[in-house]
Amino acid sequence: MKTKRCSLMMAICFVAALPFCAMASGHGSPSPKKVGILLVAFGSSEASAQVSFSNIEKKVKATFPDIPVRWAYTSHIIREKLTKEGKVLNSPATALARMQDEKFTHVAVQSLHTIDGEEYHDLNRTVASFRSMGGFQKIMLGYPLLSTQADFERVATAIFQVIPKTRKASDAVLLMGHGTPHPANAFYAAMMFQLQLQDPNVFVGTVEGYPEIDVILDMLVKKNIKKTYLMPFMSVAGDHAKNDMAGKEADSWKSVLEKAGITCETVLKGTAEYDAFVDIWVDHLKVCLNHFK
Ligand code: CO
Predict the structure, then answer these.
(1) What is the 174 CA–ligand 1 centroid distance (Å)?
(2) Is the whole-model pTM more than 0.70?
(3) Has 113 been annotated as catalytic?
(4) How far does residue 103's CA lie from ligand 1's centre (Å)?
(5) pLDDT of 34-92, one tens digit each?
(6) Could you tell me the distance, in angstroms and rounded to a whole number, from the CA of residue 21 to the centre of ligand 1?
(7) Given strand 69-73, what is the order of strands in its sheet?
(8) Residue 250, SS3?
């Protein structure tokens, strides 16, 4: 009895699945394999951010010369702002729909975010919905800059490589991360821990999360720091780096620290301008593309 019901169910399932199979095979002729890369950044309204995006694209194209590259931006505020200026940028969903139209069968989506916060998780949901719709034969999402312990160690090495050579051991280095209300905000303090294992005068704060500048300032004062280098820990040196970090306003990090008697030297370069960081994103992309072999 049990077996009978079971085989009846199987028969129903089989019949029910038929139309979907026919649809998926596109009237019997499977599409030829076409692999594509979708690079996804938060976006920036600053023209200077283009330096970072161009550097990533150059590196990706050099590493995977035969694979077409498309772009998408997760910040709808940035997309809206730029649309008003006549620059139309795709959201990840729009970019993926276009790639479907272009008959891509395998897509490696690479997040260019720093941590797996809100933007990354939204992107993950978009990728998952294209996967469940059967939009591509395969679609994979690459990790942001910081994911595994190995990433933390590589990022620490990259940071030490790009700290200006003029810096003395007694000078602090303070990196400005973005910060988020998402639980992944803890990555910034974890990054600071990783850096301080090698150099106790390197700090990581955030502009929109924790640790905020007041927390870091207390740490600098306790250590009797007289000078600090300020560097963005974001892929682009955009609005936050120029204004919230290095700006003239009273609440910029530079102003807050200088008011406390700490001399500041600012470095206005996003992490994606340095190959040491871009190599990490490219390696995450490589992991995705290896799934298509
Ligand atoms: Co922001």
Answers:
(1) 18
(2) yes
(3) no
(4) 35
(5) 999 999 999 888 888 889 999 999 999 999 999 999 999 998 898 998 888 888 899 99
(6) 45
(7) 69-73, 35-41, 106-111, 138-142
(8) coil
